[in-house]
Amino acid sequence: MAAAEHSTSPARNTEGRDTVREPREALALLSAEQRACWGLRELDGRPYEFVAEAVGISQDAVRARVFRARRCLTQALGTWR
After folding, report:
1. How many other C-beta atoms can be found within 10 angstroms of the C-beta atom of residue 54?
2. Using CA atoms, how far apart are residues 72 and 50, in angstroms rounded to an integer?
3. Which residues of 5-40 are buried (b: 16+ CB within 10 A; e: fewer)?
4. pLDDT tens column, 26-68
5. Spatial separation of the C-alpha atoms in residues 48 and 80, rounded to whole Å
6. Is the model's pLDDT at 11 over the cut of 60?
7. Residue 42's closest CA among 22, 66, 61?
8. Which residue, 81, 69, 67, is CA-closest to 27?
């Protein structure tokens, strides 16, 4: 017996693309260093000490980068709230 075909509407496909596009565009607003610090801290859950060592900056600088990244992402993704 053949499996039923799963199809989605064009509107749903567009909605899905938009859902991925907005965070990607917001992350593109960050500097490479901000993205690295934010990703290691927020996505991977790494401690500030680890992030500082990995990126090659001080822990205070990591905290500042993560803070700025959070602020930028919050502003850019305000509609997601």
Report:
1. 14
2. 23
3. eeeeeeeeeeeeeeeeeeeeebbeebeeebebbbbb
4. 889 999 999 999 999 999 999 999 999 999 999 999 999 999 9
5. 27
6. yes
7. 66
8. 69
- The pLDDT assigned to 8 comes to 67
Structure tokens of 1? 């017996």
Q: CB atoms < 10 A from the CB of 53, how many? A: 13
Write out the E strands in the chain. Answer: none
Across the range 13-33, mean pLDDT stands at: 78
Q: Give the end-to-end CA distance of the chain in Å, rounded to a whole number.
A: 44
Dist CA 21 CA 13 (whole Å): 12
